[in-house]
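HUMAN: Please help interpret these C-alpha cells:
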Amino acid sequence: MTRILHILHTNDLHSQFAHMPQIASCLKQHRARWEEQGEHVLTVDVGDHLDRMSIKTEATWGRSNVEVLNRSGYQYVTIGNNEGITLPKEKLDVLYRDARFTVVLNNLQEAGADGPLPWAVPFAIHEWPDLRVALLGATVPFAEFYRLLGWEAKDPLPILAEQVRMLRPKVDAIVVLSHLGLRADRELARKIPGIDVILGGHTHELLKNGEQVGSTLIAQAGKFGEYVGHVRLTLGSKGVVAAEAECLRAADYPYDPQIVQLIADERVKAEKRLSAPVARLEQDWPVNWERETALGSLLAACIRKWTGAEIGLANSGLLLTSLHSGVLTRKDLLQCLPHPINPCAVTLTGEQLLGILTRAIQPEVVHRELRGFGFRGKIAGWLGVDGLKIRYALEPAPQILQVLVGDVPLENGREYRVGTVDMFVFNRMFPELLEGRDMQFFLPEVLREIAAELLNDRVLLQSCLLPRWELAHGGG
C-alpha cells in the first residue's frame, strides 16, 4: 500500500511578521487540499521563529510569535538559538505555556537535572491509522552561553544516533528538525543511518530542491519567511521509497485575514508596553558610523562599567538610531540597539590592545559590512572606546601614535581587562581577542538592557562628552 506524506516546513523567520499571513495561507490551503485527497500532512518550524529586534517579540518575550504559530496550524517546532539564548531562562520556561503545538528538543535540559524539559519532548511519534512518523529535534549547542543561563546543552549527534536506533523499527519514517546548520546536517546524514529527512535551519540556506546525502534528504527554506519548504515522501510497505523537496514562495499566497488582524492587534499592545520610560536625556546623542561620537563612547562606557573592566570597546555600527533629548523609552532603545548581543570581558596585553586599535582605524574595517553573530546593523563603524585616550594619524597610512590608559601610556607587556561585545569574539574581526585570556560572557542582559540600567548615571553621561580620539595635525 502506497502512502503519501507532505511536510511543510519553515525556519529562521526572525520575527519577520510581514510574511506570516501568507505563510499561514500556504499551510492551510495545502493541508486542506492534500487531506481531501487522502494524503497526510505535517507542518513544522525549525527554530529562530522569534527575534527580539521586533517590537512585538520584545514586548511579549516571544508570546506573539507563539500565537501566530498556533493560529497558522503548526504541529511541531524545535527551538533555535534566538529562542534558547536570547531569552532569559525564566522567559523561555514559560514561552510555550499556551502553545497548541508540540516542542521537540533532545539536547537541552536544565542544569543539574536528568529529566526532560517540562515544555518539550525529546521526540514525538505522529500517528495515523496507516502511518507512523517519528519527529526528533535538536538545536545548536552553544554550551557556554546555555550554561550561563542555567541550561545544559549537549552534543546532539550521539543523542540522535541512539534515538534513531531505538525508533527505526517502530515507525515508517524518521524526520529530524535540526537547528544545527547545513554542515552539521550533512554530518548527521553521513554518520547516522536510518534518518529519512533532515529539515534544517540556522545557516539560512535555500535548498530549492533539497540535497540528498546517502539515503537522507536534507531540506532548508532560506530565511525570513520568504519561502515555505515542502517535502513529499512516498512510502511503501518497507518505508520511504521516494523523497522530493521544493520551496514555495510565500509571496504567491494571499494574506490570511485572521493572522493580519492578530499581528495588528499585537503591534498596538507592543507599542503601549514599550512606551515605558527608562531615562530622561538632557541633550541629543547623534549617531555617526564613520567618526567618533559621544554616543559611541557612551556605549563603550556602559560595557566597561557593566563588566567592571579597565577599558571599554564597542563599534558604533551597533547604534542604529540617534537618541534624542527628553524621555527615552524601551522602544527608543530597541530601535537604537536591536541586537541580541551581550557584553564580554577578556584580559589582553598592551600589544594585543594596540593591534585591535590599529586594525580598528583602517577604512576597510570601519566600512566593513557585517552579517550574523547577532548583528542587526550594516557596517562595523568607528570604534567607540572608554578608559583610553588615543592619538592617531590617517596619512600616509592609518596608524596609532599614542595610547593612554587613563593618563598613563599603554605598556606592551602589561595586561589590561577589556570589556567589549561578544560579536567580536565570534566573527573574528579582531583576532587579538581570541589570543587573550580569562574570557567571560555576561548574560542574560543584552546591550539595550544594560544601557537602560546606566543611562540615568549623570556622571557617566557627562564623561562621555569628552573626546577619546585625537587626529594628529596634518593627519588628513
